[in-house]
Amino acid sequence: MIPTAAHRTRARLAASAESPPSLRSPRGPMLAILAAGLAAIAFTAGPRVAVALTVAAAAVLVHQNKHARASARRHRATQLPPALETLATSLRTGASLPTALQEAGATVDPPLGTELTAVARAAAHGRPVTDALDEWSAQHDDPGTRLAATALVLATVVGSTPAHAVDSVAATLRERVDLTAERRALGTQARTSALVLALAPAAFATLLIMGDTPAAHFLLGSAAGWTCLVIGIAFDAAGAWWMSRLTRGPQP
After folding, report:
1. Domains of the chain and any CATH numbers
2. Which long-range contacts does 211-218 make (Cβ < 8 Å, 24+ apart)?
3. In this structure, are residues 114 and 136 in contact, taking their beta carbons and an 8 Å threshold?
């Protein structure tokens, strides 16, 4: 399949629709501010409120970190089809595979552009391109990368037309990205329901503790109460994990 200009334009728009998330957020100052705020709350409102807010803040941080990593994987998956189309175009003009990888890496934003440039640089320094592709596939063990690396390695070893193989892989990956996006959109309501079910017990327990009720004295002032808290949190976390597994679909 030879991509037309319209196909390449749609692929580039899909790849740029989701900006690359940053996993290196300034967490040092944020954690310091959070710790100072919790200390102030513990001093003014008591330790129960501070404990409840600490648990809530930890849950929010874990969720944000997980969401950022998932967004990074989805963004990288959308970069693969247009990058492979650029690679196939270079191969049709007679460029070698390392040169085509260099050109594709120069036209794609990080993280994928940096990866392709590194593979091209390793091949330019004398390393066999098949070894560089195998290492790239091993470092990023996802279906799209494995499929692209396998097609390039087979085209290099067997001697088939690399551009045709890359075009076919790009079309397959584009279909996978579109299908994953559609499934994610259809599962939005299920994920929202799962989030509400997971947060409801925690919210109810937080209200009990903040209200300074006899239940709060039992939960935080006795061994039996702490045992109930630990068991409840464990079951709630297990349920949230299982519902997340059911609703998130396949990883890109």
Report:
1. 5-11+80-184 (1.20.81), 47-73+188-248 (no CATH)
2. 212/46, 212/48, 216/48
3. no
Average pLDDT for 183-200: 82
Residue matched to tokens 């959070």: 34
Read off the tokens for 81. Answer: 């089809």
CA 136/CA 134 separation, integer angstroms? 5
User: Is the pLDDT score of 14 beyond 60?
Assistant: no
Euclidean distance between CA atoms 90 and 88, whole angstroms: 5
Q: φ and ψ at 141, to 5 degrees? A: -85, 75
Residue reference for tokens 């990888």: 101
Residues above pLDDT 90, as percent of the chain: 18
Tokens standing for residue 251: 């990883």
**Integer Cα distance of 119 and 130 in angstroms:** 10
- The reported pLDDT for the residue numbered 156 is 76
Q: How confident is the model at residue 35 (pLDDT cuts 50, 70, 90)?
A: low
Determine contact, residues 119/137, Cβ cutoff 8 Å: no
Rg (Cα) of the chain, in Å, rounded?
25
